[in-house]
């Protein structure tokens, strides 16, 4: 009977610790995604300034320079742009869903506004739209980094403490 209780205690602490670590990793993944998106938008701006690349090759290039969900997002955009009946309206949402690119609403809205309006402006207007999206993503990145370390430690500690509390209640 003691071994069953001990095994149950280990499972409870392990599961709750895993939940805390998973929450901490999701905060760190958001930081990585936002940094990659900021870098991608900078590359997008440079490509438009110096080579005036069209949308499909531009997205393909961004896909090659990024990793993870951000790379998949731009690859999906590139594939959508390759179809003959492509319309940029709604493309960001479809690509985001396919890539499982989870962003805070304000950041996603800025990215969606940029992609949905791509090609509707002259070069200066397009660069301004990219800068607006960069500003929003940078602001979200700053908000995320403000207390990232303390939030991560809190999630990890909360996971362990929750497991310990449940064990105390059960045993």
Summarize the entry for a quick read.
With 171 residues, the chain is mainly alpha-helical. The protein has helices spanning 2-50, 55-65, 68-81, 91-99, 105-116, 123-146, 148-170. The longest helix is centred in the first third of the chain and has 49 residues, at 2-50.
Question: Secondary-structure blueprint of this entry?
Answer:
Blueprint: H1 2-50, H2 55-65, H3 68-81, H4 91-99, H5 105-116, H6 123-146, H7 148-170
Helix pairs in contact: 1-2, 1-6, 1-7, 2-3, 3-4, 5-6
Keyword list:
single chain; 171 residues; mainly alpha; 7 helices
Structural write-up:
With 171 residues, this protein is an all-alpha fold. Helices cover 83% and strands 0% of the residues. It has helices at residues 2-50, 55-65, 68-81, 91-99, 105-116, 123-146, 148-170. Helix 3 crosses helix 4 (91-99). The radius of gyration is 21 Å and the shape is elongated. The model has no long low-confidence stretch (mean pLDDT 84).
Separation of the first and last Cα atoms: 12 Å
Report the major sheet: none
Q: What's the tally of helices?
A: 7
Helices and strands, in order, run as HHHHHHH
């Amino acid at each position: 009977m003691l071994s069953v209780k001990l095994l149950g205690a280990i499972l409870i602490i392990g599961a709750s610790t895993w939940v805390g670590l998973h929450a901490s990793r999701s905060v760190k993944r958001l930081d990585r995604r936002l940094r990659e998106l900021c870098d991608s938008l900078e590359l997008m701006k440079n490509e438009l300034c110096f080579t005036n690349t069209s949308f499909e090759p531009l997205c393909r290039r961004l896909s090659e320079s990024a990793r993870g969900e951000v790379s998949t997002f731009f690859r999906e955009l590139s594939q959508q742009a390759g179809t003959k009946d492509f319309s940029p309206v709604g493309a960001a949402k479809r690509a985001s869903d396919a890539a499982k690119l989870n962003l805070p609403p304000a950041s996603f809205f800025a990215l969606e506004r940029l992609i949905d309006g791509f090609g509707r402006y002259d070069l200066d207007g397009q660069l301004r739209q990219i800068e607006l999206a960069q500003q929003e993503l940078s602001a979200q990145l700053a908000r995320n980094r403000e207390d990232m370390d303390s939030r991560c430690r809190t999630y990890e500690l909360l996971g362990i403490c929750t497991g310990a509390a449940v064990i105390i209640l059960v045993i």
